[in-house]
Amino acid sequence: MTPPALGALLYAFFVDHLTTLKGLRPASVQSYRDTLRLFLRFVATDRGCRITRLALADLSFERVLAFLRHLEADRHNHIRTRNQRLAALHTFFEYLASTVPELLAVAQRVAAIPVKRCPPPETCFLERDQISALFARLPTRGRHAPRDRALLLFLYNTAHASRRSVICARDTSTSAPRRASASMARATSGAPARSGRKRPASFSSSSPPRAPPRPTRRSSAPTTIAR
């Protein structure tokens, strides 16, 4: 029995499998499309033929490994991009194995290719002397100056989630998050951030004061800061 053509399988993979059966969003389908476009172009170049002359036998395990090395060495892709392309190829070869049983051995070898581990991104923060310079440059005049200072102290001393902090400021004024961000941007204009993992110690009593303590009684409304 003659296996189906590669073009027909690709069409069924995108239209029937990804869109109809799995219900992926257009952005996800576009990611699969980009991966297979790069892979087919690489296979055609490696085989020395036009892309329209490719067959299922050209999609070998060795070419998949060579394609992954090509992404990192020639295209200089990040490890995360390489892993994303590999995940798309895993899905495609799994579909090929379910449609063309003759490709099951190749699909199993491709599925055994592991993802590469990549180091997590570095955590950036301001050092203690930069934090001191930040609070020293905060505006001291204006109706919102005490509130902005208290909000920034609250963020630093508690490492609180920004979403809850915005809720606290929103109860005082709808423009509080923007004003607090502007104050922080003005204060940090001359203090570049450094990278590291250990969080600096919080301010002591000799340093700028801490944020007001949390109320002992829990209430449905967020705590506001007096102007």
Question: What would you say this structure looks like, in words?
Answer:
- 56% of the residues lie in helices and 3% in strands.
- It folds into two domains: 6-111; 121-227, no CATH class.
- The chain has helices spanning 6-21, 26-47, 61-73, 79-99, 104-111, 128-136, 145-158, 162-172, 176-187; strands at residues 123-125, 194-196.
- It has a two-stranded antiparallel ribbon.
- The protein has nine helices and two strands; from the N terminus they run αααααβααααβ.
- With 227 residues, it is an all-alpha fold.
Estimated helix fraction: 55-70%
Radius of gyration: 28 Å
CA(first)-CA(last) distance: 81 Å
- Sheet of most strands: 2 strands, antiparallel
Q: What is the quaternary state of this protein?
A: single chain
Low-confidence stretches: 173-177, 190-197, 218-227
List the total number of helices.
9
Strand content: under 5%
Task: Assign the structural class, choosing from mainly alpha, mainly beta, alpha/beta, alpha+beta, or little secondary structure.
Answer: mainly alpha
**Widest sheet: strand order?**
1-2
Taken together, the total number of domains comes to 2
Integer average pLDDT: 79
Instruction: Compute the number of strand runs.
Output: 2
Specify the overall morphology: elongated
* String of helices and strands: HHHHHEHHHHE
